[in-house]
Batch of 3 targets.
Target 1
Amino acid sequence: MNSSGGKGSMSTASSSAAWKAVDSVPDQFPAGLRVLVVDDDPTCLIILEKMLRTCSYEVTKCNRAETALATLRENKNGFDIVISDVHMPDMDGFKLLEHIGLEMDLPVIMMSADDGKHVVMKGVTHGACDYLIKPVRMEALKNIWQHVIRKRKNGWKDLEQSGSVEEGDRQQKQSEDAEYSSSANEGNWKSSKKRKDDDDETEDRDDTSTLKKPRVVWSVELHQQFVAAVNQLGIDKAVPKKILELMNVPGLTRENVASHLQKYRLYLRRLSGVSPHANNLNNSFMNPQDETFGPLSSVNGLDLQALAAGGQLPAQCLATLQAAALGRSTAKSSIPMPLVDQRNIFSFENPKLRFGEGQQQLMNNNKQVNLLHGIPTTMEPKQLTTSQSIGNINMQVASHGVQSSQNNSSLINMQVAPHGVQSSQNNSALMQMGQPQFAHAPRLPLSVGQPIISNGVAANVSTQNGIRENIRAPGYNPVPQTSSMLNFPMNHASELPGNSFPLGSTPGMSGCISKGTFQEDFNSEIKGSVGFMPSYDIFNDLNQHKPQSWELQNVGMTFDDSRHSNSLQGNLDLSQSVLVQQGFSSGQMSGQNRNAALVSKAMLSAGDSTEPGNPLNASQHLNSLPVDNTIRVKTESVADVTDNLFIDHFGQEDLMSALLKQQQGIAPAENEFDFDGYSLDNIQQDQINGIIRTDE
Amino acid sequence: MRRQLAIMRQSLFDQGYLDEQFIELEELQDDANPNFVEEVVTLYFRDSARLILNIQQALERKPFDFNKLDGYMHQFKGSSSSIGANKVKAESTLFREYCRSANAEGCLRAFQQLKKEYATLRKKLEAYFQLARQTGPLETASRPK
């Protein structure tokens, strides 16, 4: 790729600053718009580049999707819009789309010589903001800036209304006390506190200094409030207005609730589809977990803890889940991680990061792990499919429709309230998050079907790519169709042994491990390895996950941990709003998840065949990671993970050791889900799941 | 010579070898990139030769993998349309239809035809650019009638 020739370095701060505020568009706008073009056809690429330059845009071209993702990750705010071809050899354009949506939340325009209705529709469902038919003409390119503005505008609106925290604030959220109350908002908003009062959009924007559009961040608490409200009203009668009233959160709008509800509903549907169990866990999320966990044979507390995606899973839920899981003890073994084939957008931070695979793919998936977190962004079923097969982490974990706005692809199906996560796509990321995490799977089809098995993150990461690793964490419900099997090289361990995640089999469950525990534990270790998020990149092969999508903002998803912290950071860029990968990062997955995640990571990396053996271990570790349930959706962490993942495949060895350590200390998920969204402590699975995005 | 060039150019349009997309390319040419069109076209022929070869090889393996063939052709078509290679594009569309209906015979025939058109276009454009280089910068592009 050549960097944009025009202004020199990409991400010109000035231009970004210029666009920060929607209403203060600089005069020369849209000149200087920073575009990333991805197309494997060199002829088209060069023509597009020239056309865009002629429009006075800053152009960077890529002929490979993975490169594009890597570039995007490296320069989080370096681009304003992405134009991508649909048919590419290394990764399906839609998967890339999901990843980007999840991780970076940038507007993406799809292109193709194909003008068939179904393809265009696919673009729509995956969240593309436009679709161009080749040959592309100049006129079509001249107006692409509108998408940037539009997105920003929408984001700002959300920001104002809900006081969503921007990426930067995410960290605050991590502390999981990100209450959404007004005071909290202020607290959370580093910069925009005062904005809210003034309701001054502009100021807000400036403060937040982020180009990305802010979204409502569904922190664990907020989500819990939401769930409580829904339960109180009865899922059938729960209408946004009433929910909003019950929740009584200042700054939250009916629209926020409505979209969140939608995702939640999808998630639930998914959960019920996955596991017959009724939710009896307290949180509505929990219930799903049960079900999902069902197969997870031994959803030992670990998983549950981990699952407690984003802290959503209260301890008791975990217990319940675990019990359920144990009761089930069905052979999870083949929990095919239905890792969200779709892009499981694991919003979880974890998921993505966890996959130490550093594979981009994983990351992709991770992204998708948006699952569980908070606001499942556009929960499009598609989204769930982890584009990266990695995402197939059947993170049983809350299969929230982790679809974070837009790219919820491979949502780690966190068992927790499967919000639309999986939608059709392979929610592989079934993160068995104890909590129904709304996986905001922004299009991250986290195929993480990893059921966040409490025990071993049996993340059945079924990456679509065929790596159907059923990471079966004990107790993980095999995530439905983990179509996106994570390519975890770890496919071996199909069954995570009891508590220890048979990560061996479960490929890279590491995706979604709830960050809760992960974070801590993994951080150190997983860093490299787990980084599911990044590992989603591993899915390069898998093509599915949107790596990095794990920016799971899912709070809590353990990505906060070590692993993610590093890599997550990178990914955190994902939808800032979206709690990334909800819960995936929950380190909850006591170690197991992590393992899973790692595994997934590994698997993901498998694409690169990274440490194949290791992943398993990693997964193990993941599982054992004491899921703190502080799934902090750390975008940052996710980002870190991503980076880590990518880069190095996560030193599997490191991961492994980390995991092993984790295992020992599988701390009971403290349920302090950090997630801002859903701290899937059990995100380990998620992570793995995240990684295992199911391909579509 | 300019006139000669203009006539040659016009005939390419009139005969359907090129379409408006070519004009788009011409419009992109400027002082900074005075040979932009030629560069792109050269790149196209180089890259598409590879695709043609792939298709050729795929057609030598029986039974035909129509999906794969369709995939290659899709790429080829995309490329060709981006430079305005009209006839070539039409042949690729035909080929794809045969693929979709799993018509092996049709595919072979269409491919032969496509190769012919491709070779013809190449020759014509080579001649055109050669003349253009001799003539100097091209005048404003004019749309074909």
Target 2
Amino acid sequence: MAAGTEVISPRRGAFGSVLAVLILLLIGILAFSIRLFSVIKYESVIHEFDPYFNYRVTQFLTKSGIYEFWNWFDDRTWYPLGRVIGGTVYPGLTLTAGTMWWIANALNIPLSVETVCVFTAPVFSAYAAWATYFLTKEIKGTGAGLTAAALIAMVPSYISRSVAGSYDNEAVAIFALILTFYLYVKTLNTGSLFYTTLNALAYFYMVCSWGGYTFIINLIPMHVLLCIMTGRFSSRLYIAYAPLVILGTILAALVPVVGFNAVMTSEHFASFLVFVILHVTALVHYIKRILTPKTYRMALTMVLTIGTVGALTLVAILVALVAASPTKGWSGRSLSLLDPTYASKYIPIIASVSEHQPPTWPSYFMDINILAFLIPAGIIACFSPLSDSSSFAVLYMVTSVYFSGVMVRLMLVLAPAACILAGIALSEAFGTLTYSIKYQQIPTLSNEPVSEEKTTALKSAIDSSFKSVVPKDSNKEKTKVEGDEKVKEPVKEKTSKRIRKKEKEIAEKHVEKQVERKPLVLPLEASAVGIVLLILLGSFYVIHCVWAAAEAYSAPSIVLSSQMSDGSVHVFDDFREAYAWLRHNTDENDKVASWWDYGYQTTAMANRTVIVDNNTWNNTHIATVGMAMSSPEKEAWEIYQSLDVKYVFVIFGGLVGYPSDDINKFLWMVRIGGGVFPHIREPDYLRDNQYRIDSMATPTMLNSLMYRLSYYRFAEATMDGNGYDRVRRTEIGKKHFKLAYFEEVFTTQHWMVRIYKLKPSKNRQRGKNKRKTKAVSKKITQKPIKSLKNPWSS
Amino acid sequence: MSRRKGGKLKGLLLGRQIDLTSHIVRTSASIRFENKGSSDTTKVLFALSSAQAERLAYLAAIVLEGKGKSKTQSDPLAVSQVSFQSAPRDIVLYSFSLNKPLKRGESAIVEVNYVLTHVLKPFPEEIKQSDVQLVVYLDNAYLLSPYVVKVQTTTFKLPRSRVESFTKLDASRLADSELKYGPYENVAAFSHQPVTVHFENNQPFAVIKELEREIEISHWGNVYVTENYHLMHGGARHKGTFSRLDYQARPSASGVAAFNRLFAKLPPRAHSVYYRDEIGNISTSHLRSDNKRTDLLLEPRYPLFGGWQVTFTLGYGVPISDFLFYSKDGQRFLDFTFGSPISNAVVDKLVVKVVLPEGSKDPVVSVPFPVEITHERKYSYLDTVGRTVVVLRKENVVPEHDVHFQVYYKFNNLALLAEPLMLVFGIFCFFIACIAYMHFDFSISKSSASYQARLQREEVADAIQRLQKVMNVRAAVTDKLDASLRDLARTGDVASCKAARKAAEATLKETAKEVKSIQEALQASSRAASVLLKVDSLIQKEKEKQDKLLQKHSLTVELYERKLSSKDIDNRIAPYQQKLLVLTQEVSDLLHAIDD
């Protein structure tokens, strides 16, 4: 059968691998450049909210060095509490970008920290595409790998989190996630300790980068358990898992933000439990080998009875331990993963974030597009035949679908799984169809048997393209059949070369049963149409992805733009206008209060101390700000005064129609505030369970600080003086009022940010108590006189 | 010495114009000096009060010659500060050196221009959004002159007619937006009569507190300029609230002293202009350019009220051919403007850095006024030895300083190639390293036990692989035989079937030899002990299987030749078939087992 391979194979192999490298390179470039729409359409700038914090941390890291970074106590945020940044931040992203910056500067390439941060995500999505290639190649071969890499390079779900400027943990974490999975599957396929060590390191990187590492440390044990239960226990499985748990846990504990959580929280229990099960299984296998079947059966029954009792007590102890901890050992976010309704019931802060909401069906289509239809086909392909690695892909898929259904944000974890399976499906389909077309070219007469030589030559010719179609026994790690060239090769090859070759062989798998099983051949027309349809499907995907990258996901959200009637683009740059104003025209130590969404941006762009920020670690503090925003002016003034706040700003979109402003977020402030301070009651702000700001709004609503700060002098600014709010599409309830405790110090061009200053306390006491007034005025009269003095009179 | 000579000089006629229309106070005084002494003189003196001298940004004088239309201007005169003990305190004296000596009895007209900054004091110091900005200017009604001045007038040019107050003297009058003092006759030397003007000035008080210009020369074709500004409104401080509503709705009555745009004149053919600050691009700017000019209208992020500050960066590139020239001695020199391109702005502190290309030597700077010159080294894009940076520092810079200056340096063209060659070499080294890695064996020890063991393991693995291959070849033979039997059943071609059998036997014989050699190799190897048993049994079973198959084959052919019915044949060969099935199963099991 190998007659043909002898001639073709070596050159084809070399050609193929060069082609594969070239394709991968192009995929990398594609992954990088499709994410640059935001830079081209807008500018090279950090996006959203969280990235600003990461950017600020990176700036600190590059300025002060790694040791200072670990010890960094940030007093610019959570005033007056402050925050230990070094101990509460996932440092992976920051260290990565910091290292990249450092390398660039060591080579005397003067990149600014901002530039490095902006382009970190696109660079890492190229890496992620390559990692996906390797992972899929381990599962289903090169063809599937390349397809999956091409798919993930432009999957909208991932683009949404990794466009240039979106400098978030997920940017590097997805790469780390795929790399970890790849190394796990690689270890599973080779049983090499080398790879398992690398795997632990990749896991460490993942732990450094993102809280989502718990997904890995739960998914891999699940897979191990699956393998054990389906009787797929092997030494390779042991090598793949046991060192990972030990090394991985030790390494994870090194990350300050994880620390002892790596052994103390329930998220990690599964891995230890499976670790125990794995060892028990290994022991059973060992005993089975040394005992005769009969004695083995006896031993089994004995151990089972004792074991059940022991396990029960153990479980009881565990349950007792877990139940003793207040959150049952699970963090709120993780709990809401298991019970989707948990957050909305108990933690308004988690529920208030839009990315923590469950996704809608259209968002699936938006984010993974045609992959959603291809996934089932990919799963089926994984089952023929089922191997350790393909069962991993299926398990990854199933779990990530569940998690994505819980939280929109986790759609991101689904994306690689979807790409891998869709890649497998597409490549299998293409394989079958192209194979059919190739076969058609041979005149197959039913009467005359195809001559053996022809068939084999043909088979070997289509070898490479066909690999994925032919069922492979991927359980076997070693070669069964190879081309004759192997026979002719001298036995004593160079070791390193040989190892490489062997790995390649393992990866490429074998066409062993090709001879035995003749693949089905579709009619020529059907397969041609099929290929055309597949290409069409693929191009729809590409069009959708490019559209998503260019239109949907590239807006930096701190800059808004709208199309003018004459086609030109009008830019709303109000946020930065306000932040720049704060930065340059207020005292460096002034405290600025706003809703927590804008905390990171304020510290990073305005460089001012904030009361709360997007790291929502202290619910009470946030609730205090929420309470102040929902209180009447006087109470709010007192709260802010007690927090030493100088400036308060609100985001207001009513003039230009910017929907995600503070009035629309206001109910969350009420809820979060009310969660801690019961005198803030949500029904007080609702009329007939409806949230409204028009004349039907409740007095509590109309007197709340948020309403007053947002709509102060708004009615005068609208065209007809009616105060028509373009977001709520209604006339506002209270139009003309004066602020007694706050004064407007700055409003941006489109009124989107309105900054108010707390009036000094003397104003409050004037008129209330005459004696006091006198005392106060005596004290302060010195100042005005000084300023009234003519400097030229002397 | 010069005082004695100077003492004999006399200022004859003096016209002084003080321009108060912007926040930069420009004074132009034309003085006719008459030499009444006994000898020729080359120096004339000029005085300023020390308060003004402190704020003096620029001082220049020229001699006007001729009359009427044939008036010509001389080159600027050399200025030096001089001091005399006999001069009154709080007076700073400057001496101009005339180009040609002023002969006895003759006279010359000298036009002195000087610029003062930060001398308009806002009063009141703080204003509300709706207020206009009022400033006070303090000066001397007479020219502070070391000479007796025969006739003199002073004119203050004001931006608007609204004047709150001014010091009223004998001959003072306010006409429209001009305030005139004089003419005064025979004013004694160093006479002092303070004058204050309190008037409205809503011009943009653009004060650049700090400006750092970096001019980077790239011999690949461009000069890149990066300018970091720290801009401030230097007028009356803003007080109280800022209402966007008032500012937008009533622009004429609200924030009149504030400014929200600046005008910058960039060099012609400027390209890649960017305008940003530390938090990103500032989208409010308009660039107009044609062949002769590039005008940039900058709008800061927010309107600047009194005391408000903003920082931003302005950058652009210009073609090198417009600014880099060769001097006569073969040196290159950069000819670039010194000051800020923003019109009518005061720069409190200006730093100009000229980054010369890597490998430049001996920079020499020529600036028409005194500056502080230092040198630095900067590392940029793949530099190895670094670039020489000439740093020029000057305080209190006004638009009058926006003149060209030159930096001469030596540069070898070959240095241009250094960095590309370095890159080429780096990539070359990378590929060499790759090739080396692919071709060398990097095992640490060739004699260590583990290395040997690995070699042996590999040998065993190799032998098994070969064995598997052979087995596959043999399996193929089996398939062929089966196929031939099937064909026989269909076509009844006994001859071809026999031929197939012959061919099969030949292959089997051939492969049997190979199998034996592999088996021997495995037996010789110490490492193969664990698999040897399996291998042996595999070979044995396989052989058995082939034998059975051949038997079956011959039997079938024989039966066929006897023309038995197919059912009969099936019955006859059934036992063989069964045995064969069992054997095939065993063989494949063994193959799998060996694989592990």
Target 3
Amino acid sequence: MAALQLEKQRGRSAALAIAAVVIVLGIPLWWKTTETYRAWLPFSEISELDSLQLQLSVDIEVVFSRGTLTPEQQKRFPHSHVNEKEHQVDAKTGLRYKYETRYRTATIMEEDALNQPTAAEADLSLHMLSESSCGSVVVYVIPGSSTLLPEDVKVYVGQRRTALLRSPPFKSSWNLKEVLSNLEMDVEQVVSTMSFAHQDIVAALSDRVRMTKVTKESMTDSMRAIKSSPGYEITFSLLNPDPKSHSLHWDIEGAVQSYIQPLLNKLAPIANFSVDSQILYYAVLGVNPRFDNSVSAYTLSADSLSHVINPVEARLGSNAASSNPVLNFLLYVPDAHHSPLFIRDHGKREVPSNAFHSPRWGGIMVYNVNEMYGPETERPVDININMSKVMGVFLAQLRLMLGVQHTHPPTGFVLQSPGSAGLSDWELDRLLWSRSVENIATASTTITSLAQLLDQIGNIVINDNIAQQVSSAVTSLQSAVAELEAGNLAFALQYSREAILASERAFFDPSLLHLLYFPDDQKFAIYIPLFLPMCVPIVLSLLKIVSEAKKRRADKQAKSD
Amino acid sequence: SHYRLFPKSLGQVLSKFSVRELHISFTQGFWRTMQWGQPFIPSPPGAELWVWFHDTVSDVDGNWKELTNVLSGIFCASLNFIDLTNTVQPSASFKPLGLGNATDHRFLRYATLPREIVCTENLTPWKKLLPCGSKAGLAVLLKSEKLFHSSFHSQAVHIRPVCQDERCTSKAWELRQTLNVVFDLYTSGQGKKEWSLFKMFSRTLTEACPLASSSKVYVDITDNPEGELFELSPATPLLSQAVVLGDRRTYSVFDLSRAETFGQLRSLNLLLRWKGDSGDMLRPLLHAERYVAGFGLQTGEIHTVIYNNHPYRAFPVLLMDSVPWYLQLYIHTLTVTSKSRDNKPSYIQYQPAKDRHRPHLLEMLIQLPPHSMTEVTVQFERALLKWTEYTPDPNHGFYVGSSVVSALVPSMVAMSTNFTQDQPLFSSFVPVKEESSYFVRVYTEPLLVNLPTPDFSMPYNVICLTCTVVAVGYGSFYNLLTRTFQVDEPSPPLSKRLANLIRRMRGVPLLA
């Protein structure tokens, strides 16, 4: 009997030992050999980015020229004042604007500059005196009686980062605080024109925030502008549907050099631009223009313009060598039998520029040449295209596409036209503000959704290079936010561009597609022939051992009772 | 950069990848040299791409990979299947055809895809590269439903740098688009021996492309000086003589840029009616063919046969063979025999394959004796592929690209080395360097080789079988280890039990 007990004991311990080996050695081995490689990702920092608190800091300098303040009021200069505004855009996104205003009196040299005969000259000589940093605003308050500005003009915004403000009448009995509070409204208007307005920033956040309470105007402005991208391809195409009648020549090289390139040089911090041009023959519009007897011309109505682009686009060709968004500018010279051709707006009036644009795509201009030759001229007629007329239109459209918004200045404001550079400094600043915010919004959404995706699907392999891209995107994002907070606009934009590049590279990395995808049913089909015969005896003998142990304990209890 | 006639899409590709010269061809069908004579622009079946890069390129393989991907997008072809396993760098067979004398073949890449099927989707982007598209000029004839109803179709794009003027002060890009089609109107036209533009293309010509400086149709009338063989209408007074492929040919020329070509109908429908049996085609001087010999699925032998039909001149040819790595060539079995005698090649360049990395490349300079047949044989063994490396239809077989025979063939007549002369475009593609010979490239047939194909459900079967074996073995082992053994009384033998049964029935005491 004792031998039998011993034998039973040996069987039990053998079963237990095998179960232990399977659990201690087999399962970890199986786990290790079938797991997917997943590098570590900074999930906690990404989830911090998910709720974004942006602070935008603007340096404002308000300079009082002679004759605006009494000596009593000037006593406490220089004086500075910080004004903060908070907006909660949605549950996860908050905005804080910090306006740091410094008040001082004008230096002698500035006084001299302000004594120039016209506002434009004053603007230029003020610019020569000191270069204000990117993103800052300088407001010169000039006496109400100054002849620098015409009678009804309150504010003049120059080509750089300065504005001239005609001072409202101050009572000499006011103390400084009253004066400044009187001035505050005007300065605020100037700043929202020259650096950013709340609705622009909210529109730039459209990637993160569902837009609800944005005005329609800034909505169309932001929809029209092409999305922020590290580079753009600008393509000018001359469409000649009738090479038998017209032999067209355009000096696109010179025109780009003199009209487009200055603007692009100015925009260099925002993105890389490449400019191409081509001539397409036998390219026709998708719509047949209607002949209008009253003006004996062909007309395209505003409703039909939406059908014009698609057939043409098939001929334009995409850029095979890069994946940047393309901005197309088309110059269409109507064929001899369909000219002149005019575009009409919704009010049935002829559009003076004879051009239209399509949001985020580009612009089309119709260029009539029928007046340049008589009916009996020998075909084809050599025609030189007047590039200054064409480029004026294209330049305006390009500014729209790039998001240099047509600001609608408040009444009493005069905005100096940007001149030959195509873009004034403060317009560039506006663009930098909204682009930085847009980049940060886009990059943070990309990174959070990537993290979410990787978290949800456990089968995706995460390689080290992806993890590296993700962490560099996260650090760039954090630096961009910090630089915005510090008011260093140029650095903020640069970091936000790096963040967007890294995040896109991580998101679209092809190695993420190598999903080791085995459906569960197939997995079980492969495992069952091995696992079922192995596990059943182990489980059964374990159950038996447990039940025997219980029985023995019950026996013992009964015996002791 | 700014483009006028040159297509922007190609121009951007050339500048981005620093391409010096680019030749790409898409061919459906095989050019039958013995029936149709020497092709003007030879091309192998499927797709062929060879590119010379500028010698400033540091990462040639990277550029090549990206370039093939971009070109496959432009031409809607599966050029993206070109990778290192089917790319070679021939040392002598493919020289640049344009300006400059680059000889460093590290900047050359050559690949063929013999399996590529060419169809409408490749023709449309090809037509789009033309300045007038298919809206005017000769290209109005190119309608795919007729073009692909033919015995042979080959479209190509050749880009090379050329001189802009005669004194060669500045360089320009030349883009040459060629299309070779062979129609067999005799079999498809109810046995009538005539052809016309309308019958072939279901269209006629009405105008030249207004941007073209020259737009001409050539009809070869060399064998028909008196009009005894066929009749061509409308008649044209314009004749042109040119030396093409070592032979002086006479052409009737229809110049589309002249209004009188179109006559009163304002349309040109060329009609050619044969009067009797057509004349014999001139036998091409150089001809090559290739086949696989051997039986079974282990070894085989590639035979390449090159014919020199010249009656009394011997000339050298360059033979280039690019064989995929899964045919393992035994290069010691390479034999070259002409007129049943060993013919030792004067130059052999052989680069062995690396499994899954690069193909074999074999280049040889062989002297062909006059009026002879030269046979090149080499044995190979078929490799076993991994199961993921098989194509979706592995039993179809695997293609091996055409081998390329390039030669300077002695010419019957003096070739013209004068470029300034007004020549038909198709005769001026390869620059003629000397008067006594002309350049010919001949492609052999591609090969279709069967590789041993496994049963693809095998992995699952193997898993199931091993699992079962392991489970059975494990089960008995487990059983042995955990079973409790105990000594048992042996049961009484059967006779005793039967006796006891009977005793119990009788009521007698049982046996012990």
